[in-house]
Amino acid sequence: MVAAWKRIAVLVMALALGLAAAAPVFAKEDVIRIGAAVSLTGTYAREGQLTRDGYLFWVEKVNAAGGIRVGDKRYKVELIVYDDRSDPQTSVRLTTRLITEDNVNFIFGPYSSGITNATSAIGERYRVITIATTANAPELYERGYRYLFGTLPLATTYLYPVLEMAANLPNPPKKVAIITPDNLFAIAAAEGARQYAEQLGFEVVYFARYPADTTDVSSLLAAIRDAGAEVLLCTGFLQDGMLVVRQAKELRYNPAIMGFTVAASIPDFRINLGKDAEGIMGGEWWTPQMGWFDDFFGTASQYAAEFEARFGYTPTYHAASSSIGGYLLQLAIERAGTLDTEAVRQQLLKLDEVTMFGPVSFNEKGVNVASSAAGFQIQNGEIVVLWPPRISQGSMIYPKPAW
Amino acid sequence: MSASQSSSFARRAAWAFVALVLAVAAVLPPFYLSGYWVRVITSLLMYGALASAINIMVGFAGYPALGNIAFFGVGAYTVAVLMVKYNVDFFVALLAAGVLAGLYAALLGRAVLRLRGAYFGIATIGINHATSEIVTNLDSLTGGGRGTIVPFYPGGIQEERMFFYFLMLGLMLLAVGTTWLISRSRLGYGLRALKADQEGASVMGVNTTRFKVIAWTVSAGLTGLVGGAYAYWLSFLEPPYVFDITMGVKTYIMAILGGAGTVVGPVLGAFTLELLSELIWGRFLEAHMLVLGIVVVLVVLFIPQGFMSLFAQLAATLKRRRTGEVRADG
């Protein structure tokens, strides 16, 4: 009997702890409130943190400069960040919370195309602009949404620079093979590469999709070798990239060009593969080595240095794209002279800027159509940007050194 | 005689009053709360329904159906595919989701329900994984790893809120009602018997295989219905979102926390766990999983039989005290 009351007391205490945790957040005057539900724990924790830090970097920089000018007043920016635990349902709920409880003026998107697909539907229903900085699956922008803007060029364009470099060689290769894991973003990149390759006059001799968590692609690679492909493109993630390189080496398959999407620019790829990574090419949305520039952040390398001083690590495209998302919103608000959603939306559509992230302008669908990925090659263990020619830092090694 | 009649009338009146208060409390939220809180409560109702559904297997039959979330995924994809590819009305698609998930369990059950205890639990996890792979590979139908976009609810924000709130409320009541019926039926007694001692139950004339398959079919059908509603509510599906084993484990914990084998325990467990996690996370952004974990451990340590056992214990205590007083007077 005593035990029962004791247990109830524990239960009540547990509930009280929860309720105390839920004290309301008070609103401040004269701020622009921006909300972001990003993944700080779970599957996407790393990318989510990069995204958050990118937002935070812009917020701190713009507040240090006195805030955003709206008409003749200056507004500080307040960023409200929640952890969506890499779960779309939670992300949707938090986005609803940001809009209906925290009354944010604008939304910064979550990490990944999948989760953004779910949360942007909420922004659309409530007519709040979402600046998506790490979501570029084409399906997202084909739904006719008015309030969704993506800073990254579409995933379909990821391998364009590698194909363009191949096509511009004095003695270009002819046969291309493309493999992709079964994933929203990777398939988009692979389909885009296939279409563009055919458009550039290549022959796509092999195209295959494999299960996302596979640990063996040797049969695919053997078939590709037998088809005589000179260019091998793979749109998988880091693990896929390392797997393809290792198994191609085992099979002694030596394509003249090997190109990857996300895998090759991640430092772990070069560190783990060592000499085998030499000559491998990739597309990349942004690296600090790119020679882009704007008035707010300075050059890409200045941005990277300041970012590193603040957060203790070198920023990736996730962070840079997120910082740029904030900057573009800032430009649109200043030009609109109001926080009104429709007016800011009009200004976002009119933007035509060159930033430290590269050129930006949005089409009616909210896609950044001014930019495409840059092409690079791993030379002596370093990333050397080669394409577009305007920001090239060296010349291409062709064919790739044999294993 | 007349005294006992009036006391039974008073008790009935008290129950009716409690029921009325609950009914009013259930209907009011979407009219008064913000979009966020309506969404939070709608997801409480959803988890209440899921925990009730898994309770039929876990609490009554004693089968740890950890991978029951597979039927959630089946239901979700049934609604998505029927609505997107065949333009089927939502309610028809929802019904199909329940039926298909139930049939799926009935088919699998004949084989898998031969396993017991942890082995059955592991098999259901395997089923969840395999089903997820099948859905991913049927990509002309399901969109595969790319996911699939389900059409919006065709009304305003306020109407949409109402619709999903009352839909989930209805599904939760259906799950609780079904559990109540089972608890009072021959099926319920048979399940409890086979939970306690399968051979014994079989000797006593309980058709154990049939009972288990029926229980799983019902549990899966309810789970499938909730999955179908979820698909329409979220409006975007990817296989990992709906074949999510952590979500399955969560509903399992909810059922245990509230009181496995009771009628309303799982709902209490679901409400408590979801609400706590929602509230805790508001303040402990970095450490919410830690805080929530500690709370769950505390509850399990101090109330191992679930919340319902507390109420039962309290009721027994009060009764004893009252009858004790009567005896003292006499």
Keywords:
heterodimer, A: 403 residues, alpha/beta, Rossmann fold, 2 domains, seven-stranded mixed beta sheet, 13 helices, 41% helix, 20% strand, B: 330 residues, mainly alpha, ABC transporter involved in vitamin B12 uptake, BtuC, two-stranded antiparallel ribbon, globular
Helix-strand layout with pairing:
The complex is a heterodimer of chains A (403) and B (330).
Chain A: H1 2-20, E1 31-38, H2 45-64, E2 68-70, E3 73-83, H3 88-100, E4 106-108, H4 113-126, E5 130-132, E6 148-150, H5 160-167, E7 175-181, H6 184-199, E8 203-210, H7 218-226, E9 231-234, H8 238-250, E10 257-260, H9 262-265, H10 267-273, E11 281-284, E12 293-294, E13 298-299, H11 300-311, H12 317-336, H13 341-350, E14 353-355, E15 358-360, E16 374-379, E17 382-387
Parallel strand pairs in A: 1-3, 1-4, 4-5, 5-6, 7-8, 7-9, 9-10, 10-11
Antiparallel strand pairs in A: 2-3, 11-16, 12-13, 14-15, 16-17
Helix pairs in contact in A: 2-12, 3-4, 8-10, 12-13
Chain B: H1 2-27, H2 29-32, H3 35-61, H4 69-86, H5 90-112, H6 117-137, H7 139-142, E1 148-149, H8 157-184, H9 186-196, H10 198-203, H11 208-234, E2 236-237, H12 239-242, H13 245-258, H14 265-283, H15 288-302, H16 307-329
Antiparallel strand pairs in B: 1-2
What is this structure, in a nutshell?
The complex is a heterodimer of chains A (about 400) and B (about 325). With about 400 residues, chain A is of the alpha/beta class. Chain A contains 13 helices and 17 strands.
What does this structure look like?
The complex is a heterodimer of chains A (403) and B (330). In chain A, 41% of the residues lie in helices and 20% in strands. Chain A has 403 residues and is α/β, with parallel strands linked by helices. In chain A, α8 packs parallel to α10 (267-273) and α12 (317-336) packs across α13. Chain A contains 13 helices and 17 strands. In chain A, the strands form 4 sheets. Chain A has a 7-stranded mixed β-sheet, with helices on both faces. In chain A, strands 2-3-1-4-5-6 form a 6-stranded mixed β-sheet, with helices on both faces. Chain A has a two-stranded antiparallel ribbon with strand order 12-13. The relative contact order of chain A is 0.12. Chain A folds into 2 domains: 31-153 and 290-360, Rossmann fold (3-Layer(aba) Sandwich); 157-284 and 374-391, Response regulator (Rossmann fold, 3-Layer(aba) Sandwich). Chain B has 330 residues and is an all-alpha fold. Chain B has one domain (36-329): ABC transporter involved in vitamin B12 uptake, BtuC. Chain B is 82% helix and 1% strand. Chain B is built from 16 helices and 2 strands. Chain B has a two-stranded antiparallel sheet with strand order 1-2. The radius of gyration of chain B is 21 Å and the shape is globular. The mean pLDDT of chain B is 88.
